[in-house]
């Protein structure tokens, strides 16, 4: 029987603003190219959360979208926390990255509680941090994307950043950190979408999911020449 | 004193910068600085006032249509046709139209303004009419959020002294109706049940149809569309006509233009002249504009955002046509490539894409790879790619989907092969 993986996209209806569907498509296709059947499940507020989940992907939304999912996310928090603690690979971009932390404090001083999977906090900043961004990670090499956020995220000492900013603002424009990683959960502000131009991260998510489920992962060779060329161009573009 | 010299000065700079081959904004910039009241004072002469057209998609085409339709009604119309849709661009257009004493020879101005600049504009000049087209996912790197953009359009509606014309099918634009203070209720243009299914928008990309919410009545609707034959309801009248426009979105923009012009002309409207002019209108530059190259048509389709790209792909049949895609990432194109991932390219799978180019050619090629669309040629050098595309597809009709600055570049290059009208 062919091996299969179940990918859940969190709140695609309300949190899909920066081409986050691109991340899902890339994981789905690459997993297929690595020899797996992929079952993609859209999870929206009040849906039944699937019982078997191998990868979770979530994106960014507008403020109005974040308000819509807020209550549901709190209800789902224990389930997501168990998955995260058990090593389920996840990718959370922008809005959901923020909500995976302790809280988001708005410009008006209102506290929007997060779900505490990652030990970080986000404060509304005075200006939007917008532009091309390049970061460096020991595990993934150069990570390339585009950022567009007003929230400034500060990681606690025990939480590792995903990368160090080479060009751009990153988590907060101050400490050169970008994103965060806890177990196999990756949080980041990068879109563009993130995974097409950073296939090493897509393959990491797939590999972890495969190992969790089948105890091993044998990758296929995928033609990444367009990704390599697109990375080169993106790095050369001005902020 | 300034009032007397700013006009000749501005006109002088305009001539000089034209001789230098420079941009259209410099004279506007100078006049804006030395005579801040120029804009308001000049436009206040117009007996029928100022029409402002804004929204994410379709401003240029719709403005062109509104101008031609108003001219069909015997009005002298002033417009910022050069596509410089910033306040300075408007001033530059005015400088071209005023005489040396600052007098305008026109009845009405129809101005296309970018959402953010429109808000600056309405602080100086209250429009008599406004037409708000849509709020789509575009240029989020500039405006941040769609809801913010909707807020900009609301400010335009609130500053409008007369009729506000709104797109009924766009939820965010429709909602502006409840936020306007104008004494007259807004006028809507819209689609019918039959044509609505042809228009995917950003929200319905993910959401089931929003039809649960009752829609307000629309004065003009696009009821049916078969190729370039369209049926519109205008008030209680139904008209079917053949158009020279192609593309769903262009034809829906015609409904917007009809609603606005009906509102401006009211009972005095000459319907025959209106419809015969509409049937002759050609698309604005780069918006489905067709050139003849080596005896074959070559069509430029401007794509700026996911919904526009999706509509383009569903409007034009890929069969027996060589396709090229050119994606740049300059400011006017949108710098973030995320949007390409919100467009499905499955419709190009059967015939493939002959050529991919532009600064972000490899981002586009990468996007096509994940939809398993075959690609002939990829290069970031746009001019070379265009020549290659034309050479290697002689004897076949061609279509190029292109972002804004890629479109300008392509038109310049195409002028070497064929007749290209100056913008």
Written description of the protein model:
The complex is a heterodimer of chains A (239) and B (423). Chain A is an alpha/beta fold. The radius of gyration of chain A is 17 Å and the shape is globular. The longest helix of chain A is centred in the N-terminal third of the chain and has 23 residues, at 63-85. In chain A, helix 1 packs across helix 5. Chain A starts with a strand and ends with a helix. Chain A has helices at residues 21-33, 63-85, 95-99, 194-197, 199-214, 225-236; strands at 4-10, 37-43, 55-58, 90-93, 103-105, 111-113, 120-137, 141-155, 163-167, 177-178, 180-182, 185-188. In chain A, the strands form two sheets. In chain A, strands 2-1-3-4-12-11 form a six-stranded mixed sheet. With 423 residues, chain B is of the alpha/beta class. Chain B folds into two domains: 2-280, UDP-N-acetylmuramoyl-L-alanine:D-glutamate ligase; 287-414, Alpha-Beta Complex (Protein-Tyrosine Phosphatase, Chain A). Residues 19-23 and 204-210 of chain B have low confidence and may be disordered. Classes of the chains: A alpha/beta (239), B alpha/beta (423).
What is the annotated CATH architecture of chain A? Answer: 3-Layer(aba) Sandwich
Query: Number of helical segments of chain B?
Result: 16
> What summary fits the major beta sheet of chain B?
9 strands, mixed
Name the CATH superfamily classification of the largest domain in chain B.
Mur-like, catalytic domain
The averaged pLDDT of chain B comes out at 86
Helix content of chain B: 25-40%
Radius of gyration of chain A: 17 Å
| Corresponding CATH architecture of the largest domain in chain B | 3-Layer(aba) Sandwich
Report the uncertain regions of chain A. none
Pair of chains with the largest interface and how many residues each contributes: A-B, 35 and 31 residues
Distance between the termini of chain B: 35 Å
CATH class of the largest domain in chain B: Alpha Beta
The low-confidence parts of chain B are: 19-23, 204-210
CATH class of chain A: Alpha Beta
The number of helical runs of chain A is: 6
Strand content of chain A: 25-35%
What is the global morphology of chain A? Answer: globular
Subunit arrangement of the protein: heterodimer
Widest β-sheet, arrangement of strands of chain B: 2-3-1-4-5-6-7-8-9
Proportion of strand residues of chain B: 15-25%
Give the overall form of chain B. Answer: globular
